[in-house]
Amino acid sequence: MTTYCEVTGRRPTFGKAVSHSHRRTSRRFDPNLQRRRFWVPSEHRFVRLTVSTRGIKTIDAQGIEAVWARVRRERAAG
Questions:
Q1: Can you list the alpha helix ranges (DSSP code H) found in 1-78?
Q2: CB neighbours of 70 closer than 8 A, spacing ≥ 6?
Q3: Beta bridge partners of 25
Q4: Is 17 within the bounds of a domain?
Q5: Which ranges of the sequence are coiled-coil (predicted)?
Q6: What H or E segment, with its residue span, contains residue 24?
Q7: At what angle do helices 64-77 and 53-62 cross, to 10 degrees?
Q8: pTM of the complete model
Q9: Domain with 74 in it
Q10: What are the φ/ψ torsions at residue 77 (nearest 5 degrees)?
């Protein structure tokens, strides 16, 4: 599974975990990724995307057609 959101482009960030004694160790902050199926009416099929919860809200606001067109352009570009 990809470790980034295909809609928003969010990736893991890195930082430090600080213990009670104030020792610092490296840690990773992962985005909340979900593997979701979305129905695209113009293509009469489902598409499966790895999206963050913010990406799901973006799809709800802008519509799957607009977001899917942008994702396809980005995939084609490389």
A1: 53-62, 64-77
A2: none
A3: 17
A4: no
A5: none
A6: strand 24-29
A7: 120
A8: 0.83
A9: 32-78
A10: -70, -25
Which has the closest alpha carbon to 49: 74, 25, 14? 74
Token representation of residue 12: 């893991």
> Exposed/middle/buried for 19, CB within 10 Å: 0-12, 13-18, 19+?
exposed
Distance between CA 59 and CA 18 in Å, rounded? 36
Tokens of residue 55, six digits: 């990406």
* Domains identified in the chain, total number: 1
Q: Tell me the two tokens of residue 31.
A: 């985005």
Q: Are 36 and 56 in contact (CB under 8 A)?
A: yes
67 inside domain:
yes
One digit per residue, pLDDT tens: the chain, 78 residues?
A: 678 999 999 999 999 999 999 999 999 999 999 999 999 999 999 999 999 999 999 999 999 999 999 999 998 987
